[in-house]
Amino acid sequence: MKFATCLRQLCLACLLAIGIAACTSGDSAVQEVLVSEILEMNLKAVRGDAQDSDVRSTDKTVRISEADYTLVGRYRAVGTGLMRIDVFAGDKRVFSEGKDENGVWEWPGGQDEPANVDHEGVGALEHGIEFNLFALAELPDRGHNVNLVGKEVIRETSYYVLKITLADGFETYKYVNEETWLVDMSRNVRALHPGIDPTETDIETRFDQWERVDGVLFASRSRDFVQGSDTPTQTGLVVASTYDVPLADLDLDRTYVPDGPPITN
Questions:
Q1: Which numeric CATH code is attached to 57-249?
Q2: Over the stretch 243-255, which tens digit does the pLDDT of each residue have?
Q3: Smallest Cα–Cα separation from 123: which of 186, 181, 172, 55?
Q4: Are 219 and 208 in contact (CB under 8 A)?
């Protein structure tokens, strides 16, 4: 079985190498086949034996570190488009934001109640739902475009480069490792802190420390780099995660007041 798997991957790698050359001559039919193969292999890698099962929700505890501070957040998202995150500095809630049936809202620590908002950060919340809950193979059926733009070797690793264009026009590039079929890296132009400073920059996010929870393989560590720098501007570490949590257990109501930070040990 292992030999058969290796042989199939070798054949696929050859097909992809030939097809990428063909894509440069404008053969959209070949590209469509290649993208389907890449997405299929990625889906098998991240979902394993549960490729046909839907991931409906997630609840994660994330430690967020930058140069001069460390925060802890509880992030929840539902495939129907709802989400919420509560961020703590020590025992103090410093910020909450989310999206519910009435729109996107924010609730800074110290304010009496949440309020609806409309700024650059709104799109970032919606993009997070797509990439935290859905595999690459599921994106086309959700109205997003996935195109193969080429192949690239970065830090001695060979990648298939996929351009993802979400329905709202946001563009990002996902780098699929030729050997593992996992997305080791993404690149896009965006603001580091869109709700505070809308200034956009070229950001490379590297993913590693892969873990499988509830049948889903995900990168428990992500690091953001300004392209050209090898010093991360932000590191996110998932310290607890679960999937397909009942909606009632996610505490998504914007008026919900957390008792304290999530447990991280």
A1: 2.50.20.10
A2: 999 999 999 999 9
A3: 172
A4: yes
